[in-house]
Amino acid sequence: xxxxxxxxxxxxxxxxxxxxxxxxxxxxxxxxxxxxxxxxxxxxxxxxxxxxxxxxxxxxxxxxxxxxxxxxxxxxxxxxxxxxxxxxxxxxxxxxxxxxxxxxxxxxxxxxxxxxxxxxxxxxxxxxxxxxxxxxxxxxxxxxxxxxxxxxxxxxxxxxxxxxxxxxxxxxxxxxxxxxxxxxxxxxxxxxxxxxxxxxxxxxxxxxxxxxxxxxxxxxxxxxxxxxxxxxxxxxxxxxxxxxxxxxxxxxxxxxxxxxxxxxxxxxxxxxxxxxxxxxxxxxxxxxxxxxxxxxxxxxxxxxxxxxxxxxxxxxxxxxxxxxxxxxxxxxxxxxxxxxxxxxxxxxxxxxxxxxxxxxxxxxxxxxxxxxxxxxxxxxxxxxxxxxxxxxxxxxxxxxxxxxxxxxxxxxxxxxxxxxxxxxxxxxxxxxxxxxxxxxxxxxxxxxxxxxxxxxxxxxxxxxxxxxxxxxxxxxxxxxxxxxxxxxxxxxxxxxxxxxxxxxxxxxxxxxxxxx
Length: 516
Known about the structure:
The structure is a single chain. By secondary structure, the protein is an alpha/beta fold. Among the domains are: about 10-85 and about 165-240, Rossmann fold (3-Layer(aba) Sandwich), CATH 3.40.50.300; about 345-420, no CATH class. The chain is built from 17 helices and 22 strands. It has helices at about 50-55, 80-85, 100-105, 120-135, 150-165, 180-190, 205-210, 235-240, 300-305, 330-335, 345-350, 355-360, 375-385, 405-420, 435-450, 465-470, 495-500, and strands at about 10-20, 20-30, 35-40, 65-70, 70, 85-90, 170, 195-200, 215-220, 220-230, 265-275, 275-285, 290, 315-320, 320-325, 340, 370, 375, 425-430, 455-460, 475-480, 480-485. It has a six-stranded mixed beta sheet with strand order 6-7-8-3-9-10, sandwiched between helices. A six-stranded mixed beta sheet has the order 16-19-20-13-21-22, with helices on both faces. Strands 2-1-4-5 form a four-stranded antiparallel beta sheet, with no helix packed on it. A hairpin with a 2-residue loop joins strand 14 (about 315-320) and strand 15 (about 320-325). It starts with 9 loop residues before the first strand and ends in a 16-residue tail after the last helix.
């Protein structure tokens, strides 16, 4: 994979963008040097997405200038940007789900054979070679994108951008769905060693410090500073991003066991389903239990089975002492105290894009406001006004179409939707994927407040550090089974990674008899 060396990299000078009276970016200036990874940091709504769209040719700035390798750079479209050498792997994946991996690689053009007809075999062979070149061997070029997991789609998005030999590669939240970032970081280092620039956008400061040397911080649409990462602490970065010091963690005191004297709200007894086998655990009132595992270990299917989205093939689900059959999410929500589920992909599985934020929050409980075939809007608004402060979602956003909100505020709305149901158990699958550090703190606080009031939480995260902040104990999944149940006082990253990868013997194992 060869790229041209850049003599000057990319320079932005006083770049601004407004949508009517709303200023998204104001006089942003920064320089991206060749052979260097530079991070872009900021809260959701700080202007990062707008800047990415400008660099990628999706929108044009109102003011300011950009140069690429000392030449004026003003892309008129994503295709124009790509031809200039600027490629982007978007957070909101740009793949077409109704096409194959190979077809997505070659858009907007397809490989053609004799007579100008599309040659599917040739396209698949070329795509297979592209995947292999980027160390991806477990995704078929013939697979339909819609059938892939979120993590697999993310890898396809990244490979597609890398394959185009970029002079500037923009990675927008690339690790949000990846359980293992080593693959990506190896490819990034390979690219920068050949002289390309990389703009890396992430909310995970530990990853940023591992891969980037410098960072530019945005706040309220303005570039606050560009810093050398080794010269600043995480607290300094947080303060530049949000304008205040971090509040600190919200975990209960070490040694406490919130669920010790409470009844189980949810139990799985030898539960089996697609990609998981003989899973047993208890989830008690007041308890937050984490789930850790690499991609594809059965955790996604386990959560969806508990949420009523997938049928189990064996075993029991017990809610408040009563065995239940969950045929759909309504059963899960309205049986024996209720289970509310927040899925991993808010764009395709979470939000109703044509509705307002308030309507999105109340979708699960609309029947509570049904009056003579209509909706009691006043009662609906009161219910939303009661729950939105729990996630610090501003009242001014409630009437907005939800797609006009930042990703962080959309995620707050989805968690508010789960809270408003009154369910005793929350299932949260990667609930802070792609949100900023300030929003993460708000979500952590909401989770702990919910548990302190007697609720129970089962939470999966691709970020181990997040689980250490959140949970009272953590289940580790490997090859479809729960191989360890670790109390918070014993959580250790090295030990957990060993269990997640099968390189350590399990310290605890579900005693199930097997269903397969």
